[in-house]
Amino acid sequence: MADRTGPTLDLDILKAGGLIKQRQPDLFSVRVRALAGNLTAGQLAKLGEISTKYGKGYVHVTMRQGGGDSLCPSGQSGDSSRGT
């Protein structure tokens, strides 16, 4: 095991700022929120720069905050909390 002599990281503070500790040693994922899923070309370019400098050179994009309802016909989206 590597000797870790640096300061201890407060993972709760990092998580609140969008950094999520991964299972692999010394790796974090970065969460980015985008209002309505919209990012400018400049914002996307900056994410690419950050990924190249600090990561593996790619950005993984998901739609975890919804998006499914936008594909349903009007009036048929239902309420998942009611099971409809």
UniProtKB/TrEMBL annotation:
Gene3D superfamilies: 3.90.480.20
Biased composition (Polar residues): 73-84
Superkingdom of the organism of origin: Bacteria
Chain segments carrying region Disordered: 65-84
Domain Nitrite/Sulfite reductase ferredoxin-like: 20-66
A GO term, aspect molecular function: oxidoreductase activity
Protein name, UniProt field: Nitrite/Sulfite reductase ferredoxin-like domain-containing protein
Organism expressing this protein natively: Candidatus Hakubella thermalkaliphila
Lineage, opening ranks: Bacteria, Bacillati, Actinomycetota, Actinomycetota incertae sedis, Candidatus Hakubellales
